[in-house]
Amino acid sequence: MSEQTYYEKLITANDRGKKAAGENAVNYIEDGMTLGLGSGSTVYWALKKLSEQVKQGLNVKGIPSSKRTESWAKNLGIPLTTFHEIQELDLAIDGADEIDANLHLLKGGGGSLVREKIVNTASKRVIIIADQSKRVAQLGNRPLPVEVLPFGWEVTAKRISHLGAHITLRDKENQPFISDNGNYILDCQFPLITDPAELHNTLIQLVGVVETGLFVELADRVILGQDDELHYLEKPKGGQR
Ligand SMILES: O=C[C@H](O)[C@H](O)[C@H](O)COP(=O)(O)O
């Protein structure tokens, strides 16, 4: 079964929620905008809807946050640009693996966290789309993806484990998973994460760590879907980008 056919099966309420949230996010796109195109199965639906509007004459340009998104966008006829041409984007639309009440995110389930963070931080506004199951009281129910340099990854993993995490080197078909940037991903199961900013700041200082999947104060709005029903979460007042 192709990846696209798999996504389009829409078996569960959460599958249908991803579609509803992804399609709804396209309402925030205006003619002439430059877009950050996030990664994952929820973003797939946003791209599909966006492609319909592009066919009807909407003028936008996007920067994809993964090779997979780039290939989808090309197949769907969405015009692309690069950071060589433009360094600030109007709006990024991206998925997430966990979302807490402060709109802090845990991301990287698909291994695209580095490019996603570059794209999101380059965007004036970030809208996160997800099914309702991604909403959590506290981040860290699932392992935190951390992208690391392959050289000496064992040393980096040991240092992270000293911070209290159980580490698994992500694999794909019995080989280490390689990110779009040629790096490894360590899936780090911490006890629940009480202070995402502090944990990110600690991890990012370790030599060998390229980026963490903690996205703190980056999301401006979250659209959560379950079946056809949508719920919106706004960044708490006083939050900064
Ligand atoms: O690396 C992957 C990304 O962070 C995705 O945005 C995240 O895993 C959510 O993916 P999905 O929409 O497939 O649940």
From TrEMBL:
Pathway membership: Carbohydrate degradation; pentose phosphate pathway; D-ribose 5-phosphate from D-ribulose 5-phosphate (non-oxidative stage): step 1/1
Catalytic activity: aldehydo-D-ribose 5-phosphate = D-ribulose 5-phosphate
Gene3D superfamilies assigned: 3.30.70.260, 3.40.50.1360
EC supergroup of this enzyme: isomerase
CDD domains: RPI_A
MF-aspect GO terms: ribose-5-phosphate isomerase activity
Assembly mode: Homodimer.
One of the GO biological process terms: pentose-phosphate shunt, non-oxidative branch
Binding site for substrate: 39-42, 94-97, 107-110, 134
Protein family: Belongs to the ribose 5-phosphate isomerase family.
Gene name of this polypeptide: rpiA_2
A Pfam family it matches: Rib_5-P_isom_A
Ion transport in keyword set: no
Protein purpose: Catalyzes the reversible conversion of ribose-5-phosphate to ribulose 5-phosphate.
Protein name listed in UniProt: Ribose-5-phosphate isomerase A
GO cellular component, as recorded: cytosol
Active site: 116
Record SUPFAM superfamilies: D-ribose-5-phosphate isomerase (RpiA), lid domain (SSF75445), NagB/RpiA/CoA transferase-like (SSF100950)
Keywords associated with the record: Isomerase
Statement: the UniProt record of this protein carries the keyword Isomerase: yes
Record-linked InterPro entries: NagB/RpiA_transferase-like, Ribose5P_isomerase_typA_subgr, Ribose5P_isomerase_type_A
Organism: Halobacillus karajensis
NCBIfam families tied to this protein: PRK00702.1 (NF001924), rpiA (TIGR00021)
